Amino acid sequence: MSEESKHHIEENKSNTSAIVWILLFFVLNSASLTFFSSCDNAKEHTAEAIRDEDSVAMMTSYGINTLISDSGIMRYRIIAERWEVNDNVHPPRWTFNRGLFLEQFDEKFHIETYIQADTARYYTAKKLWHLWGNVRIKTVDGLIFTSEELYWDQNSHELYSNMFSHLVTPERELQGAHFISDERMRHYKISNTKGSFTREDFDNDASANANAAPGASPDASAADTVPKRKMAVPRKR
């Protein structure tokens, strides 16, 4: 091979290497531009806000039989199949979605009232119970109350319902659309009422009206014994 041929081959190799380096430069440059451009146009992907019903309970217990105190005194016994405690939602709550049976005690730890429902929630910050589904109350005095929904406000010490309610005592039977009572079920009122009464009910009313002060309304003395409360039902959460 002549010197001229060798020189020509070497020159071709040099030209080929230069072309390769030029192409490589353009490829790398294009890739870098694409990368930075994609970074500039990147979108932030965020999940939707967690809803209350999606929040996980802080504690879930099964087979519950426990005593609950109020101001250092044992007031209630709770019996439930499932108990969820969730302070991450607003308002914070306890949930009993597999039934609740509750015993209420007096100051001497004697049982005064039995309460049961298919489902219940207790809003801890508000001290408010919301019970629904086959709600039933029975007192040691023989009073029986049934409804499909009941609220128990422990701040005002009142029970109330804006759903059809049925109440039976040893002396009378009442039913109506609105119910309100003290939490011991000793002073209660049912509006839109129908039911049966004893003769003593009418005799007592007549006696109270006769002894009322002049100008007083006929049922003023009876109304004073009834807890006063607006019949607005708290919104479900």
Would you give an account of this structure?
It is a single chain. By secondary structure, the protein is an alpha+beta fold. The chain is 23% helix and 40% strand. It contains three helices and 14 strands. The protein has helices spanning 3-40, 199-211, 220-223; strands at 59-70, 73-86, 93-96, 100-105, 111-117, 119-123, 128-139, 144-153, 158-161, 165-168, 173-176, 178-182, 188-191, 194-196. A six-stranded antiparallel beta barrel has the order 2-3-6-7-5-4.
What's the topology here?
Blueprint: H1 3-40, E1 59-70, E2 73-86, E3 93-96, E4 100-105, E5 111-117, E6 119-123, E7 128-139, E8 144-153, E9 158-161, E10 165-168, E11 173-176, E12 178-182, E13 188-191, E14 194-196, H2 199-211, H3 220-223
Task: Give a quick summary of the entry.
Strand 10 and strand 11 form a beta hairpin.
**What's the rounded overall pLDDT mean?**
75
| Helix content bin | 10-25%
Number of helices: 3
Q: What shape does the CA trace take?
A: elongated
Radius of gyration: 38 Å
Task: Give, in order, the helices and strands.
Answer: HEEEEEEEEEEEEEEHH
Strand content: 35-45%
* Low-confidence region ranges: 208-237
Q: How do the strands of the widest beta sheet line up side by side?
A: 2-3-6-7-5-4
User: What's the N-to-C terminus distance?
Assistant: 95 Å
Main beta sheet: strand number and arrangement?
6 strands, antiparallel, barrel
Structural class: alpha+beta
Strand segment count: 14
